[in-house]
Design a protein that fits this description.
InterPro entries: CheY-like_superfamily (IPR011006), Sig_transdc_resp-reg_receiver (IPR001789), TCS_response_regulator (IPR052893). This protein is of the alpha/beta class. The chain contains six helices and five strands, in the order E-H-E-H-E-H-H-E-H-E-H. The longest helix is centred in the N-terminal third of the chain and has 13 residues.
């Protein structure tokens, strides 16, 4: 793939899901770097503190212990607008509840709601849609 994301941030407490997603992203050569955070608070801290390796694509799980995906979104909207403007945030979930999809899509910072696990096909679609 010619164009790549600079950095993809995976926010998910499930280690096996992170492993699978990292392998597929690497296999497809979609980015230069993959950052994994297993809880939303660590991810938020990373986004607040990191100056150089700012992710341009974020995958956010909904159900996590401690701060969940919804709470993360409330804090995320407080980040500087210019930082958020360079990021594409996609919600990931195993939830089949249509209310979760609707709630995610009502959030201005969420670009899409996708089912886990990500597949090669879904990642290629994401790259086609969101690579700038």
């Amino acid at each position: 793939m010619k164009n790549k994301f600079n950095c993809i941030l995976l926010i998910d407490d499930e280690l096996s899901t992170n492993y699978i997603h990292k392998r597929i992203i690497s296999k497809l050569d979609l980015c230069l770097e993959i950052i994994i955070k297993t809880n939303a608070q660590d991810a938020l801290n990373y986004l607040l503190e990191e100056e150089n390796n700012i992710p341009d694509l974020i995958f956010l799980d909904i159900n996590m212990p401690g701060m969940d995906g919804w709470e993360f979104l409330e804090e995320y909207k407080l980040l500087a607008a210019e930082k958020r403007a360079t990021q594409t945030l996609l919600m990931l979930s195993t939830s089949i509840n249509p209310d979760d999809r609707e709630r995610a899509m009502r959030n201005d910072n969420v670009k899409d709601f996708m089912n886990k696990p990500l597949t090669e096909e879904s990642l290629l679609f994401i790259a086609e849609t969101y690579l700038k």
